[in-house]
Amino acid sequence: MKVILLKDFPKLGKAGDIVNVKDGYATNYLMPREIAIPATAKNLKVIEKIKEFNRSKAEKEKIRALKLKEKLEEIGELVFKKKAGEGGKLFGAVSSIDVLNELKNKNISLKKGMIKMEALKELGEYSIRIKLHPEVECDLKIKIVPE
Known about the structure:
The chain has three helices and nine strands. It has helices at about 25-30, 40-75, 95-105, and strands at about 1-5, 20, 35-40, 75-80, 90-95, 115, 120, 125-135, 135-145.
């Protein structure tokens, strides 16, 4: 039986894929759990419209991410003033939360998972990676100076 997957399912495929499975597996497992629907002509048209909607939504998200990237590039670098001991070791650290808060002060809101960085524990200049979209990333410079 041919079915259309409504959700990503391990070993079968991704949402929107048309797969061929045994009749009993489809009717007794996949369909009752709303993982798949029969691959009828009507359902294929509906799925195609959903895919088109998702493509346009993804394109809008990518455009928004590119605009956000431009804003981040305008900022250039973030400067943090922290207390430090001998050898430039910080009392504490600069984490992704600190970066998020500093960006929020500059009217840029990101999610925590977008910032790819380890906690910075020494004075100096760093470059961190920010993933705004699966296809859009940018670098942001962080400068930590003593108070």
